[in-house]
Structure formats: C-alpha cells, structure tokens
Design goal:
about 325 residues; alpha/beta; Rossmann fold; eight-stranded mixed beta sheet; 11 helices; 12 strands; globular; binds iron/sulfur cluster
Length: about 325
C-alpha cells in the first residue's frame, strides 16, 4: 500500500449555538463521525449537496477548526488533531487551501506579488530576493507572466484570479492541498483550464488533493477516489470508477442520476431520481440513518440504528442497512 498523506478517523465538528438561559443547549452537527484516508499523490473528490459538511471537513483537515467533539487527523503519520498553534507551525506550510471564489479570496489592495508572497512572509519561510524569485517561479508555473506581478486582482479575469490563488497555495511548497469548489465560480470554458493546471502540478510535484465540488463529472475526471456526504456524514466512499458504476447508497443514486451521460441514447433512457423533501437540519438530525426521512427504502431499523460505513468490496464502502442484502 502507498503511503498515506491524510487519515481522518471518526471526525466530529459540532458548533454550539446560542441559547437562552432556560433553553436546552443546542449544537449544529456540521460533521458527525467522518472517516477516510487519502494516499500521497492522489486526489479524493468530496461531493454532496450544499451544507452537507464538505467544506467543514476540508477546513478541519487543515486544523482551521478545533477538533473538540472527537476524532483524529493523522497527517504524514503525525496525529495533529489537538496540536497547539505552535505545534502546527511546521505543518501549516505543508497544507494549503485553494478557495472557491477567486473574486473575494484575493485582497484587492495588494498586487499579485504581494498576494502570492503572503504565505512565505507569514510563515517566515523566505524573504527578500529569494522570496521574489520564488513568487515569480510560481506565477509562471500557473501560466501567468512575470509582468503580471505588479498588477491588482481587478485587472484579471476569473480564471486568471484562480491561477493567482493556486500560485499562493503552492508558493510554500505544500504536500496536501484542499481545493474547495475551485471551479464553481468560473465560466465553463475556464473550468477545464484550472483542472488541467491542478493535474499537471500533481503529476510534476506529487501533490495530494482533497477536491470538493458539486460538479460530479469534473470530480470523476480528476479524482482517484470519491466520498459522498449527506448531513455531516460520509455515506459512501470508493475508488472513482467503482463508485460511478456500482453505487450502492440510495442517496448516491439520486445524485448520480442527475449527471448527463456522454451517450445521448443513454441520456434519453436514463431516469432522473427526484428526491422528495428537504435536507433535515443538522441542529436536529433524524435518529438512525441521516437519510431516512427522504429514503424510499426506509425500514424500521433505519430509525433505530445509524448505519456504519461497511466494506462492500476492497474498493468500496457504504453506510446503509441495505448493503449486502
Ligand atoms: Fe435508506 Fe435505511 Fe439505507 Fe438509510 S439505511 S439509506 S434509510 S435503506
């Protein structure tokens, strides 16, 4: 087996909510017991509806949230779950994030050189001429030119801004990068360019990605394995082709039924599964299976017992009481 870059074990991120003096304390269970691992140099796609906890998982892997409720994050063999800021310092430069919105994630008052050099200066990695050379190298690596360094974000298109965001994420020479919906704010014509850059950089430098997206076709294209989240839970997790061809969980089947097939005949024949009802609130999730209020196969046991993630085969895990029946 290849070396693991990230290993998340039973990760729980709960946010306490403000409540009155005589009210019961309430918590928002954004992530409620998620486990997966990503091999070094590979990409894991994470999909699910808005608000299902994908971004919270990504941010917690980078320890941007405290891991208080439980669970572990092992990065390159070290349990960083409860590291202090001081202990996290050497790890910060090894883990970076590419943000969703290239329009708001770049400081409009800074030039490209100022934005891309931020991590080098903030983490005291390099300064002066060395930092300038490194910044220029990164900007050129993502397909921009050295004369762009003195310009401001508003002078660039969305695709170019996302390249600046990628250069900023790479400048500290990280190993693990959380790509949080990096293409969703871009025109379709630009999305492929950004994906190609991420793939080329992975081939060249062996980066490990967590790729969070709504775009199931793009996730299939870029990922080696894919996890499906629903209401703070990972409900299915498999190697990419195995998941797209042999999905088991009723929720995954609904999601995938909306993906257009390349073959128009297949497209006509395929039936879109429309989910009834809304996603329940993560403040008051259903007992047992989180999907049971919308699942047409729901059985008595589904309300009583939360299904564990169990192995269907060596490439595939699913959390559903129907698995194996
Ligand atoms: Fe549906 Fe039950 Fe499976 Fe949940 S555990 S997805 S409710 S069949």
């Amino acid at each position: 087996m290849s070396k693991l870059c990230i290993d998340a074990k039973d990760l729980k991120i709960h946010f306490p909510l403000k409540s009155g003096m005589f009210q019961k304390k309430r918590v928002l269970k954004a992530v409620d017991g998620v486990s997966f691992s990503i091999e070094a140099g590979s990409t894991m796609g994470l999909v699910g509806e808005s608000g299902c906890g994908k971004t919270t998982v990504g941010r917690s892997l980078l320890r941007l949230y405290e891991i208080q409720e439980g669970g572990q994050i092992i990065f390159d063999g070290a349990d960083i779950s409860r590291f202090t800021d001081q202990q996290m310092m050497p790890y910060r430069k090894r883990m970076q994030m590419i943000f969703q919105d290239p329009y708001t994630s770049l400081d409009p008052r800074k030039t490209v050189a100022g934005i891309v050099s931020e991590p080098l200066l903030a983490m005291n990695i390099m300064k002066g001429k060395d930092a300038q050379d490194r910044v220029r190298e990164m900007v050129e690596l993502v397909g921009l030119k050295a004369d762009h360094l003195s310009r401001y974000p508003h002078e660039f298109s969305g695709g170019q801004r996302q390249r600046i965001g990628i250069a900023r994420a790479l400048v500290a020479n990280p190993e693990f990068i959380v790509c949080d919906e990096p293409i969703s704010a871009l025109d379709v014509s630009i999305q492929a360019q950004v994906i190609n850059i991420l793939e080329e950089l992975q081939d060249k430098f062996g980066f490990t990605y967590l790729f969070i997206s709504h775009d199931l076709s793009m996730v299939r294209h870029i990922s080696h394995q894919v996890g499906v989240m629903y209401l703070g839970n990972l409900i299915e997790y498999a190697e990419v082709d195995e998941l797209y061809e042999n999905m088991v969980h009723p929720y995954t089947k609904c999601l995938m039924s909306a993906v257009p097939a390349a073959d128009p005949v297949q497209n006509r024949e395929r039936q879109r599964i429309i989910l009834q009802g809304d996603v329940p609130s993560p403040i008051d999730p259903p007992s047992g299976c989180p999907f049971r209020t919308r699942c047409k196969y729901c059985m008595d046991i589904c309300a009583e017992k939360k299904p564990e993630l169990v192995r269907v085969n060596e490439k595939h895990m699913v959390a559903c009481h129907l698995a194996g029946k």
